[in-house]
Amino acid sequence: DASSEALMKKALEIESCHLAYWIDRSRDEGWQVTLFGKGGPDGNQELAGFLCHHMIKQLAEFKVEFVFVPDWLRGGGYGKRLVRWVIDRAAHMPKSACSWISLSAVDERVSFYEQFGFVDLDSSESKSEEQTWMELENRSLVPEDE
């Protein structure tokens, strides 16, 4: 629709988010980019953030590749809304389809994800100099088919 197109256009103008890169990468990899908007002072939607994510079916894993909130909105609860969206989306899948959520957090954001229950995978292969691989068990609300 027109408001989604306008939001996408505005988001592409924000150089720091590298949205065009994530859209291209998502097309190549079969991932999804989900934009989140907020009402602007002019009544139009403004970018509140976006997620790049996908399911790894053979592992029943909801993998978050990238989370972005514009600098000027950080501290306003938008990152929390994005993470809650991921957790809620996973909770509406049976555990057989989504047993856990994973993401790679820059080290200074680890405590942010820990408040949602994410834990450090704590394996040598998951560590890089500036990133920490984290996971959260899915608290599914959907019963398994019997």
Automatic annotation (TrEMBL):
InterPro entries for the chain: Acyl_CoA_acyltransferase, GNAT_dom
Highest taxon, organism lineage: Eukaryota
Pfam families registered for this protein in UniProt: Acetyltransf_1
All residue ranges annotated as the N-acetyltransferase domain in the record: 1-139
Region (Disordered): 125-146
MF terms (GO), sorted A to Z: acyltransferase activity, transferring groups other than amino-acyl groups
Entry protein name: N-acetyltransferase domain-containing protein
